[in-house]
Amino acid sequence: MDERRLVRVSKYQSKHLRHEPGRIGLELDPNGWTDIGTFLAAATAHGFPITGDELDAAVAQNDKRRFTVDDGRIRANQGHSIPVDLDLPVATPPEILFHGTVARVLPAIRAEGLRPMNRHHVHLSPDRETARRVGARRGRPVILVVDSAAMHASGHDFHLTANGVWLAATVPPVYIRFPD
Fold first, then answer.
1. Integer Cα distance of 23 and 42 in angstroms
2. What is the pLDDT of residues 62-119, one digit of tens each?
3. Residue 156 to residue 85: CA distance in whole angstroms
4. Which of 29, 34, 127, 174 sits 20 to 30 Å CA-CA off 51?
5. Same domain, yes or no, for 68 and 107?
6. Based on the structure, what is the number of domains in the chain?
7. Can you tell me the distance from the alpha carbon of 131 to that of 156, in angstroms, rounded to the nearest whole number?
8. Is residue 84 part of a domain?
């Protein structure tokens, strides 16, 4: 499959498994899963046919590993704007985590911390490079360092997704180290 088609399939999957399943008549279970055959049929009925091989390639080759396939089902690993319970256990985070953003939102983050906005959780990266790539999607990236150990010790819960993204309900400003 060519790269452009792979990107289109991946974006289609993201849109309908994270944000708008009803747009194509798809229903996700409470944990965000749907049957692969049901998803492929819904995509075809909606005018965007996807083959099983294309779906497999989009899952396997996605650099962010956004999707999990298990027992004939598929779901997005995180980033939902619709109600789902990913049923992820509470996990102990590493000492620090990172968040990529852009300079124009720093005043709000300094005042309010990191908030999930229209998502269920704040997404945190285990390394600077991943955070840099995330921040670069919106402009020149700014990398924030989160004192996740102190946050966890203060009673904040963290969850680790199947693709290595750390999730937190919010990150209060006191736990964020801002660039100079």
1. 10
2. 767 889 999 999 999 888 888 888 889 999 999 999 999 999 999 999 999 999 988 8
3. 18
4. 29
5. no
6. 2
7. 21
8. no
